[in-house]
Recover the amino acids of this structure.
């Protein structure tokens, strides 16, 4: 702390050292004199013991200034100690010279602080000491003939010592004022007229003067930024560049331009989070009318550095918005490329089948004569057309969801029959792979207000993915229950014992056209739109989608929907989001009715 104080005021450390030296010598002299006094006068009386105790009180001032670096209060503490010592001397029957010397030195210690408050406090203490001495009837009212030579020597010594202290303190005060004038030669009226923030630094980066524009933008009074305050408000990562620019300017290297962040108060004064604003800073040395050589500049301890700070926070926000827009455009372009790459297979395969088999049926030479073969070709064309229609419908649904034009018709729905119909539609696929399809209903009459077609699409997509990615003789479970921590919500969980999803793919799950384990030869066909559509439909209903998975441990898709339908006002409703979590150390037969913990929000 003393180092920082010496940087802010180069004379503070010598003044503090001089104070500690004279008080230390005083206490040392008292400690040496006590054994001699006791040897000559044997056991002291209690007034004499009190005198010695008050003489050692400056030790407390030494400890105080060593711990706090606050010199003024330590000087006042010494002044109070001298007043107490004067009262103790008077009660012990000492002469007027020693009592007066103590009171005079008490006044001197207060005067050399040059602080009106401290001087006023010392004056009150001195007046109180004089009043106390009068009550004790100390020998202050004796005629001059009774004043001994020792009293005169005490008065003369204290007078010379006090005058020396005052002359030295006045000299240091003048030197400090001259240095301050050299640092700020009539700059304050000028910098207050400038529109930018202007700060006058010394070569250590300490702020000696600044205009009031900081208060408007940072929300801080100028006093908080004076001295080392401005440096303390610089972002930690920007401090090396700030100090390097100050050092370059102080060494005569010319102007330096840096960009730093300063901590201030945000618009929300109750927030505890720091608010940093960006500033473009031009730092240069003030030559006071003439340039100096580099060697002279480096040797000049009184170098004055001018820093002009320009708030560029709005510009930085615009740059960040442009960067975000650029990233979004690149992401959209990548999504387009990914869409074309994924759709090329999904569209070409059914189109090739339709065109190929229709040409065969239309050509008399290629058309088979067997009616069964013709019906087989017609069935292939029909299934390919249905697949193509499904792909096109998925793309159109995704577009409507993203544009916010997907039509919803909320109505009361009993979930059990809806789930049973969806399971019936997928049961042939499950039986072909010997997959067990299990339904669990906590209440078969659970109702929900939602769009029936959208809910059916959500269930079909989740069940279809579960059956598709579950190996032979696996298990797919769909369960419905109310949410434990929110009875106004319904939870639909679809759990499989399939191949699972890696943590890297889990974070991107639900993006349009994204497929986990993407390869040139995919083990499972699909457009990558199913889960994205589920995510969009769930969010349109004001619900949440929780995904738990781990490779080779299966996947759990948990949909939470409000019983009474989507909240009309999002600000008064719930947070709509998709959450993903990697399942670790959980057996494959985990209950899908448990409440899952959320670790990552996608």
């Amino acid at each position: 702390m003393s180092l920082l104080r010496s940087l802010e005021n180069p004379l503070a450390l010598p003044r503090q050292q001089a104070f500690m030296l004279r008080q230390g010598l005083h206490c040392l002299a008292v400690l040496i004199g006590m054994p001699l006094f006791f040897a000559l006068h044997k056991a002291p009386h209690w007034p004499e013991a009190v005198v010695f105790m008050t003489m050692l009180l400056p030790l407390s001032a030494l400890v105080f200034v060593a711990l706090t670096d606050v010199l003024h209060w330590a000087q006042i503490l010494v002044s109070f100690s001298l007043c107490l010592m004067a009262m103790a001397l008077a009660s012990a029957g000492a002469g007027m010279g020693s009592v007066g010397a103590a009171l005079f030195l008490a006044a001197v210690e207060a005067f050399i602080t040059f602080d009106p408050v401290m001087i006023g406090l010392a004056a009150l203490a001195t007046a109180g000491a004089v009043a106390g001495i009068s009550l004790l009837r100390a020998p202050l009212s004796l005629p001059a003939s009774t004043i001994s030579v020792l009293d005169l020597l005490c008065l003369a010594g204290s007078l010379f010592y006090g005058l020396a202290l005052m002359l030295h303190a006045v000299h240091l005060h003048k030197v400090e004022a001259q240095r301050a004038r050299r640092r700020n030669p009539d700059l304050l009226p000028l910098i207050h007229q400038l529109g930018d923030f202007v700060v006058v630094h010394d070569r250590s980066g300490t702020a000696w003067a600044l205009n009031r524009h900081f208060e408007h933008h940072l929300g801080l009074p100028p006093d908080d930024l004076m001295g080392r305050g401005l440096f303390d408000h610089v972002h930690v990562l920007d401090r090396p560049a700030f100090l390097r620019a100050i050092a370059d300017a102080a060494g005569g290297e010319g102007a330096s331009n840096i960009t730093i962040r300063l901590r201030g108060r945000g618009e929300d004064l109750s927030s505890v989070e720091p608010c940093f604003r960006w500033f473009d800073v031009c730092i240069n040395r003030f030559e006071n009318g003439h340039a100096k050589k580099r060697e002279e500049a480096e040797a000049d301890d009184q170098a004055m550095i001018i820093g002009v700070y320009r708030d560029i926070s709005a510009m930085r926000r615009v740059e960040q918005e442009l960067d975000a827009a650029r990233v979004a455009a690149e992401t959209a372009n990548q999504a387009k490329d990914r869409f074309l790459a994924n759709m090329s297979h999904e569209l070409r395969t059914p189109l090739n089948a339709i065109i190929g088999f229709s040409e065969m049926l239309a050509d008399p030479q290629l058309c088979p004569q067997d009616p069964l073969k013709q019906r087989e070709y017609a069935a292939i064309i029909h299934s390919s057309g249905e697949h193509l229609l499904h792909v096109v419908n998925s793309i159109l649904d995704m577009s409507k969801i993203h544009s916010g034009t997907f039509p919803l018709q909320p109505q009361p729905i009993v979930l059990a029959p809806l789930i049973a119909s969806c399971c019936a539609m997928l049961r042939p696929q499950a039986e072909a792979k010997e997959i067990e399809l299990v339904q669990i209903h906590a209440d078969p009459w659970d109702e929900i207000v939602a769009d029936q077609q959208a809910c059916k699409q959500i269930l079909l997509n989740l069940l279809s993915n579960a059956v598709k990615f579950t190996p032979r003789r696996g298990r797919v479970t769909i369960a419905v229950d109310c949410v434990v921590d929110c009875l106004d919500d319904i939870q639909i969980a679809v759990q499989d014992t399939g191949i699972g999803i890696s943590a890297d793919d889990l974070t991107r799950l639900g993006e349009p056209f994204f497929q986990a384990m993407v390869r040139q030869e995919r083990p499972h066909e699909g457009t990558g739109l199913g889960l994205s559509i589920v995510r969009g439909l769930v969010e349109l209903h004001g619900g949440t989608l929780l995904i738990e998975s781990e490779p080779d441990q299966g996947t759990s898709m948990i949909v939470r929907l409000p019983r009474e339908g989507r909240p009309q006002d999002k600000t008064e409703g719930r947070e709509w989001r998709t959450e993903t979590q990697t399942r670790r150390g959980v057996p494959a037969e985990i209950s899908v009715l448990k409440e899952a913990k959320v670790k990552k929000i996608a």
In short: The longest strand covers residues 275-286.
